[in-house]
Structure formats: C-alpha cells, structure tokens
C-alpha cells in the first residue's frame, strides 16, 4: 500500500478513530442480525419502524411495475416523472408550504441548497453543532461562515449585529443529530425578522416524529411561516430515502436553477419516490399518531431510566439519547461490550462530535418493546459501571 495512505490509517487507528462497517442481515427492524448474532438495534434512525412497513413496500413494488427501476436522467434532462411531482405536492401540503423540491439525499440537499442561496460577500450564521452536510454546503458556497455557540441565541444576536452584511442566512439543525435537543426556533425566527435574514432548518430528525401529524419541528414550535427553507429527509422516520426542501414557489424555482446537486445528478428512482409518498401519507393518519405515541413513551422511559442511573445525558426530550463518555477509546470499548451482550449502539467520535465529547448515541424506535428497553437499560448500567462511565 502507498506509504502515506498506510501512515494516515495508522494515525487514525492510534487515535482510536478508525471506522468500519458492521453487516446487518435482513431488515432494519428492532431486532437485527449483526455480524451473525441477533441484537437489539439501538442506533437506527428508522424511528417509526416504517422501513419494513407493508404499505411502503407495496407502493414501491407497484411503482417498479408501472414506472421501471430508474428515472434515467437528471430532473432537468428527462428525469422528472409523475411520481416526483406527486411526492413534491404531498410534501408541500404536509409541510403547509407553497411548494417543495426533492433531493437525492439529505447531504445532497444541504450541499445543493446553501450554495444556491448564498455566495461570496454573504454571511452564514451556523450553529456550532450543525450536521456535517450543512458545514459542507457552507464551505461550497464560499460565503463567510460565522459559527455561534450551540443553541445560544444571545450570542447569535450579538454576532448578527456585528457581521450581518449582504445576504444573511441563519441555518440550524432543528433536532441535533448527535445531541437530540431541539433548536430555539422561536428565537431564531425573531432574529431572522430583525435582520431581514433567511432562515433554514434541517429537520432530518424531526420530520415524521414531532408536531401535529409528524409535520416536524417548525410545526411543533409554531414558526412554520418564518422558516424560509424547511429541509427534511425521507430516509429516517419516513423509512425511505432522499430529502426535500419545503419552500415558497419562488425559492423552489431558484433551487431548481441553482442547486448543483439537483441539476447535475440522476433523480430519485420510482421505487424510492413511491415509498416516500406512502410514508408522507401514512404519518398523517391515526396509525402515524399511534407510532409517535409509542416512540415518545419509549423515549421517556429510556431517558428517565438512564438519567436516574446517573449517566451524563445532554438536555433534550427526543428519541436521540446520547451518553457522553468523553474518551474515544472508552466509547468504543463501551460499544463493543454492549454488542457482546446483544445491544447494537454506535460509538460516535470526532470529527462527528467535538474532541473530548465522544459518546454512545442511542436511538429509540416505536417498535421497541418495554421489555427490550428494560433489558437494555440493565445491561447499559452494568457495563457503564464496569467501565467507570457512571
Ligand atoms: C441533521 C442531518 N442532516 C442531514 C443528514 C443527511 O441526510 P441523508 O442521510 O439523507 O444524506 C443527516 C443524516 O444522515 C442528518 O442527521
């Protein structure tokens, strides 16, 4: 192997940061077979369990029969199919917005949307803990990046007084993917209005889960009208794949003309579009309400049990429940020990989270049973004590 590549890999390994994949056999259900053994899945974003829902599978299969397996081209070439327009119409009415545009993934959405909105001479105010795809989008845009301390809207207000010039964009995860807390959207909306800025939220982890009908974080906090770009994904609670921007008709046209990840990439295939459409419909039904209730009840039980046992859990109330360990090496030991006892929870290390804040990130599903979670809590406490984490 090339020596510099070998050295780099050694260096990553020595810092306890080497990553590898684990093979899951079968479907993404609450219990999965991981590298040959059955384990409880505690790190999937399939929060409502829709990834193996029969309605999504049936819609997907029917779409392949009717429309085939590929869209064949970028949307602006020959790749806009009826299902793209039907899905975007459904998302617009779900999010109570004028229109929506589908993207191939959340990462593609963020790296496409942000450079379409801002460029040289503009400023982006970005929460320090925003998702990597937002950071990538800002870097691609060449706008000036001003990072503000996590959820600290007083600091953001001071930074905006000082730096807001040209076009300003405030961008934030709505539910923080590694911390599980919700952004102060009411205050962000107030600052956006005061400075005539644009406000974009990434609701990858709120869509389907929070707010009435699962409409997301902006609906929960009553600020839908103030958020210019509600980005969300189909690959998490919605059990499918891809992403959307829910926006005004004018902004949709701008994105369609400027977002390079939209323009220069083959569009989502019929099977995926149909599954997403079925999911958007399903989350607004009584079945969707029931799944959310189960998820929230599971979340409360799990969060309270770990907090009572003395673990360090960042403030929050969502289905993302991190235990902050600190050291990357101990985090991975914790994760390995849990796997040996039948629990699959992912260790999260830098650069995904800041140095010294490595953590186990647990995610709850509506389809976990109380017995699953009680057994998990017992093992997490026992192993956590053995490793000196609690
Ligand atoms: C907050 C956030 N935004 C964007 C993404 C990227 O979405 P996707 O997985 O669809 O690329 C993720 C996770 O993957 C995320 O957690």
TL;DR?
By secondary structure, the chain is α/β, with parallel strands linked by helices. The chain has 15 helices and 14 strands.
Strand proportion, as a percent range, falls in 15-25%
Q: Which runs of at least 5 residues are low in confidence (pLDDT < 50)?
A: none
Number of strands: 14
What is the count of DSSP helices, taking H or I runs of 4+ residues?
Answer: 15
Bound molecules: pyridoxal-5'-phosphate
Strand order of the largest sheet: 4-10-9-8-7-5-6
Task: Give the number of domains.
Answer: 2
Report the CATH architecture of the largest domain: 3-Layer(aba) Sandwich
Cα-atom Rg, whole angstroms?
21 Å
3D architecture notes:
The model has no long low-confidence stretch (mean pLDDT 96). The radius of gyration is 21 Å and the shape is globular. It has 15 helices and 14 strands. It has a seven-stranded mixed β-sheet with strand order 4-10-9-8-7-5-6, sandwiched between helices. A four-stranded mixed β-sheet has the order 1-2-3-12. It has a three-stranded antiparallel β-sheet with strand order 11-14-13, with helices on one face. It folds into two domains: 23-48 and 286-386, Aspartate Aminotransferase, domain 1; 54-282, Type I PLP-dependent aspartate aminotransferase-like (Major domain) (Aspartate Aminotransferase, domain 2). With 390 residues, the protein is an alpha/beta fold. The chain starts with a helix and ends with a helix. The chain binds pyridoxal-5'-phosphate. Pyridoxal-5'-phosphate binds next to α5.
